[in-house]
Amino acid sequence: MRKFFIAAGTLFGFLIIALSLFMWWLGAFSPVEVSEGLVGPYVMVYEDMVGDYKQTGKVLDRIYQSLQNDKIATTKGFGIYYDNPEKVPAAKLRSRVGCIIEEKDQPTVLLQSKYRVTTFPPTQSVKADFPYKNKMSIFIGIAKAYPALAAYAHKQGYQFFESLEVYDMPNKKISYSMRCEKK
Questions:
Q1: What are phi and psi of 135, to 5 degrees?
Q2: DSSP secondary structure string, 105-172?
Q3: 62-80 tens-digit pLDDT
Q4: DSSP letter at 9?
Q5: Cα-atom radius of gyration of the chain, to the nearest Å?
Q6: 3-state class (DSSP) for residue 96
Q7: Rounded to whole angstroms, what are the CA distances from 52 to 49, 120, 160?
Q8: Does pLDDT of 49 surpass 70?
């Protein structure tokens, strides 16, 4: 029986170490550096959505796949989140989700006729980047970036507005930003 407990304890220890290393690799223990600056401009293909923010990934994937089928290259996804999920019921959360279009594909007629397209103008924001390793990075980034952005904005006396997340696949990072103005 003693050998069983030693083996179980050893296995448990290895699992804790493996999980800790995996979380470290994802960036869970990395500090978040917040800065201020312009975010954008971006040309965006999008869908507006009302409902739980957890559903935005499906919409983003659908738009990405449709653009790929139409031979329109995109390597960046985005989500604009208008409401604070701590204050608004999940069923009423508003967002705009889609893909950022590269400059060479922006003037296409297909783009204008088939998709909803908008321009996100250069916007003064507080911002932070987080490494993208896999889809879990998004959730860890949310848990780390938004509290850091909120603390920074509060310290500076800023009022929050919508937040923007840009999923930059070539650079393997997620950029979190919040439009802010002095109160």
A1: -60, -25
A2: GTT-HHHHHHSEEEEE--EEEEEEEEE-SSHHHHHHHHHHHHHHHHHHHHHHTEEEEEEEEEEETTTT
A3: 999 999 998 888 899 999 9
A4: H
A5: 20
A6: strand
A7: 9, 23, 20
A8: yes
And the tokens for 143? 């848990």
Q: Which amino acid is at 29?
A: F
The tokens describing 105, both together, are 């594909």
pTM for the full model?
A: 0.83
35-182: CATH superfamily: Regulatory factor, effector binding domain (3.20.80.10)
3-state secondary structure of 48: strand
Residue pair 60/96 in contact (Cβ under 8 Å)? The answer is no
Q: Which long-range contacts (CB under 8 A, 24 or more apart) does 108-116 make?
A: 108/72, 110/70, 110/72, 111/45, 111/72, 114/70, 115/45, 115/63, 115/66, 115/67, 116/45, 116/46, 116/47, 116/48
| DSSP bridge pairs for 155 | none
SS3 21: helix
